[in-house]
Automatic annotation (TrEMBL):
GO annotation, cellular component aspect: endomembrane system
Membrane topology: Multi-pass membrane protein
Organism: Neisseria animaloris
Keyword tRNA-binding recorded: no
InterPro entries per UniProt: Ccc1_fam
Name this protein carries in UniProt: VIT family
Subcellular location: Endomembrane system
């Protein structure tokens, strides 16, 4: 008989897109409204006001998309470099890395023997994932998905 585990959803790890979307929408609305209010003070005709508003919205959207793309890309590149460095260390200094992981678990309250058991078990299962998560603070499942994230966020602008 298979076991079904209910894992309650947590949103704090996934709220970056929401925060960026709210920031972008707020920035776009305020900057466009401010531009249009300034222009309206000069009493332009309605077509000038409309074209200016559309240009401001498109320019703001392209700017936010480019900024988000660069931001996500730089984070992905940094995390990729950290993962490469950790892979090198795991290959060339496995005992030191095991001790390092055990020290992390000891600092979280495990006794030394249990910390080494946990470190050994996690290293045996997936050393890079364990070190990325507990030493560097990178979720490798998220980090490996940055390419899809970049493509999605950039394409979202145009759909």
């Amino acid at each position: 008989m298979s076991r079904s585990w209910h894992i309650e959803p947590h949103f704090s790890q996934r709220n970056n897109w929401l925060r960026a979307s709210i920031l972008g929408a707020n920035d776009g609305l305020i900057s466009t409204a401010s531009l249009l209010m300034g222009l309206a003070a000069t009493k332009p005709d309605s077509s000038t006001l409309l074209i200016t508003g559309i240009a401001a919205l498109v320019g703001g959207a392209v700017s936010m998309a480019a900024g988000e793309y660069v931001s996500v890309s730089s984070q992905a590149d940094t995390e990729k470099a950290d993962l490469a460095k950790e892979t090198h260390e795991l290959t060339h200094n496995p005992d030191k890395e095991l001790a390092e992981l055990a020290d992390i678990y000891q600092s979280r309250g495990l006794d030394k023997a249990l910390a080494y058991q946990v470190a050994y078990a996690l290293t045996t299962h997936n050393a890079l994932e364990a070190h990325a998560r507990d030493e560097i603070g990178i979720n490798t499942r998220i980090a490996m998905g940055y390419g899809r994230t970049r493509k999605y966020r950039f394409n979202r602008l145009f759909t």
